[in-house]
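Two proteins follow. First one:
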Amino acid sequence: MKKVNARNTVYYILAGILMLYGFQGNPVSNDLKRAESTLQLILKMYDAGHDDLFNETYPVKPDNKVSYLADEDTIAKQRVAYLWPTSGVYSGINALLKATGSKEYLQLIERKVLPGLEQYYDSSRNPAGYQSYITATGKSDRYYDDNIWLAIDFCETYLLTRKPEFLERSISTWQFVISGWDEELGGGIYWCEQKKRSKNTCSNAPASVLALKLFEATRDSSYFNRGLQIFNWTRINLQDTADHLYFDNISLNGRIDRKKYTYNSGQMLQAAAMLYKLTGNKTYLEEAQRIAKSVIDYFTEDFAAAGGDTINLFKNTGNWFNTILLRGYAELGGIDGNDQYITIFRDNMDHLWELVRDENGLFSKDWKGEKEDEYKWLLDQASLVEAWAILSGNTGQFDTDAAVNKYLNLLTPEAKSKSDVYFEGGYWMMPGKAR
């Protein structure tokens, strides 16, 4: 007789029991509705019409040149979005997959996102990796941070679905990322493979997060050791000890670019929180909490929102930058239970929805709502999909193992020790047997 997997067979009954014990799912939130509606606008308004690619802006900008590359943008043909904003769409859909557990979003990743990303995949250079623009136009620069964001998403999709192909993609992309580490400046990963002029927080802090996620996915300690090494190098070389925030980069001559961005500190916040979660060392938790507070002090200002409420509004630091910061706050909040920073973010996002959204449902970079972008950038929209999905606070997924463990924690030690017998025999459903 085929043995029954008891944990799966009790799925529905256990769901009902967990509701009785307070483990209910939440109704669809405004945050989730906003994330889903913004994603639908992206799919409709930014579709390039071929090869599962997107346009950089809406409406399409005539020359559409971008300003965030290491050197001048020289692409002269009919243009599509660069890799960075395209990867932001993946992040948004991934966050919705996590928030809802809906197969619709996994199918969108598999049928739309991955085929589109393949247009940027460059296997002609070793190690293989994703270049900044589609390979159909020839070789373009490859940025280590671009690849890190993708590898994090691949790993996240694996952790959500346990489909091995996503872990394989993450590990393969990690190999490209770590090839950017050398002993100049005592370690660290460069920003751009072809322009090895600086080692940036944006190519190191998220690399630490990626390595720690790969450790969570594989339990291979080499990833943990690398994640800790990168974290320590970044902290020693790029942290402002006065306020615990992070500078942008250090050039090979040792000169530090002292500009600060929310996402850089946000990724070190997330890495510190993850290190605490993995080690139990309170030094990392305290570090994460110091960064969390300092970010609000440095990057926000009092602002009179609609209705007369005063909120901590993030200054004009970029939609995507702020969303990456939110990842750090979500990680920390899941550990220390402090929802102060999530509340600040929700205040900001409510303000954006009410006062910054244009007649097409799209958003500009200016969170005060004083300046409107004529051409709305893809990444500015995609990042807000991710932010609202994170804020929805509803995973929507029924994690069977986690749910079973929550139930078993209600049992006596004797009952827990016999859990297999309880589930196989159905005795746990009988009155008095679980006491």
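Second one, unrelated to the first:
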Amino acid sequence: MGLFLFRFWPVLVPLLCYLLWHMIVRHKAIKKGEPAPRFRDGPVYWLILSTLLTAALCFILLATGQDALKGDYIPAHLEGGTLVPSEVRKTP
């Protein structure tokens, strides 16, 4: 799960911006004595569009940037009673 969030955190940025916008607008409305806006009253179209475009960009970058991940994976193992961490050895 951590690796998923690490690679796809840009997709969450538009959602977090929308939540921040909603909190600010809600706070201002309550301060003025107006009814607080509902969550779906905001720019949902732009939120969905920006999230989809960001996800597409992440997938494109992930697909084209795989050169750094090529190699042989050596899992963690014991050598002489000590734990040797895992590593990826690049293949020529």
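SUMMARY FIELD: The chain has two helices and four strands. The longest strand covers residues 72-74.
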